[in-house]
Amino acid sequence: MSNAVTQSQMFGIVLTIAAYFVGLFLQKKTGWKLCNPLLIAVAIVVCVLLVFRIPLEDYEMGGDIIAMLIVPATAVLAIGVHSNLKILRRYAVPVLVGCVVGGVTSVFCVLGCCKLLALDTMLTASLFPKSVTTAIAIDLAETNGGVGSLAALGVFITGVVGAMLAPTFSKWFRIEDPVAQGIAIGACSHALGTTRALELGELQGAMSGLALSVCGVITVILSFFVI
Amino acid sequence: MSVLAQIGVVLGICLFGEAVSAVLPLPVPAGVTSMIILFVLLCLRVLNAKKIEGVSSFLLNNMAVFFVPSCVGILRYADVFFENALPIILICALSTPVVFFTAGTAVKLTMRLMNRKGGSGDV
Questions:
Q1: How many CA atoms lie within 13 A of A78 on its CB side?
Q2: Distance from C-alpha of B27 to C-alpha of B43, rounded to nearest angstrom
Q3: What pLDDT does A227 receive?
Q4: B49 with B87, same domain?
């Protein structure tokens, strides 16, 4: 009987949505920054799967349908960029400078840390693309002798850190301008960070989406030279 | 546009984006190519953003949910993670604020520099 339930595509979809609403509720209730709805939702789903011994494959039958929406959700970020075209035109140079600086620091920061910790090439190649979207990161890691799954992990942790702490970082580093905030979030924590940037404001979200695209391309180009 | 038509248009753009991504020699994800295609369509006024507002605001407002399944999928790599947990966490947690700081500050400083140079000159 339980198989019939978990092997329905509805199962993954309903579990994901329900877990997310619990996350939203907890965040509202506690107001605690670490209570990120995404993080809570992931934790709840993982717990449910482990406790009831539900295979990941069952969950993913429905989960994949939800995950499929990442592509259109990224695509419609273009609307925000387009409606802020005037601002973008005015700040084209700062935006580009920010993306290049962000992309370059990300790669060199990881490479530096890996050198310091004396990690092997496999780990280094897996982690250097951690600030870009999963799709780019896995590809880059594997073409450079890394492991795709490790790259996905690095991307995930980076994204969660960015999504949770973006507003805190803005305060620490005194980044108050919405354009600068958006670029910083997109450059350091790709699409996961962008979900948080959208909560800060439409302009931040648009800039973050723009930065994640530009930084992704920059990281791809950089990988030809550095690795 | 009806909701169904909006879904058709947005997914159609994504399908085109996926085709472009498959052809490109560089690993550019479909989301990024679709975003560029939609941006071009908006600029050329082939498409009005208002027409797909219902679906696009649904997608934007709930973006975080769509990432839940892929994050759960990381479960598959639990053993790889525990083998290398410390360096991975350390590097990711450390470099994220660094990149935030450099990218944000770069934008801020360039803006300030341009303002000083151009005075009040907008546009």
A1: 25
A2: 25
A3: 63
A4: no
- Rounded-to-integer distance, Cα B32 and Cα A186, Å: 13
Quote the strand ranges of chain B, DSSP E.
none
> Could you tell me if A109 and A192 are in contact, meaning their C-beta atoms sit under 8 angstroms apart?
no
The verdict on a CB contact (< 8 Å) between B103 and A211 is yes
Which residues from A are below 8 Å from B101, CB to CB? 169, 173, 184
End-to-end CA distance of chain A: give it in Å, rounded: 52
Domain that holds residue B56: 1-66
Of A136, A153, A181, the CB nearest to B81: A153
Please report which confidence band the pLDDT of residue B121 belongs to, taking 50, 70 and 90 as the band edges.
very low
Please report the pLDDT score of residue A220 as a whole number: 83
Are B41 and B83 members of one domain? no
Q: How far apart are CA A72 and CA A92, in angstroms?
A: 25
Q: Do B96 and A131 touch (CB under 8 A)?
A: yes
Strand ranges for A17-78 from DSSP E: none
* Structural domain includes residue B123: no
pLDDT at B110: 93
Buried b (16+ CB within 10 A) or exposed e, A41-57: bbbbbbebbeeeebebe
Q: Is residue B1 located within the same domain as residue B61?
A: yes
pTM: 0.83
Partners of A220 on chain B (C-beta within 8 Å) are 26-28
Q: What is the mean pLDDT of each run of 10 residues along chain A (227 residues)?
A: 81 96 91 79 94 94 92 89 86 92 93 89 88 80 82 87 91 93 93 88 90 86 79
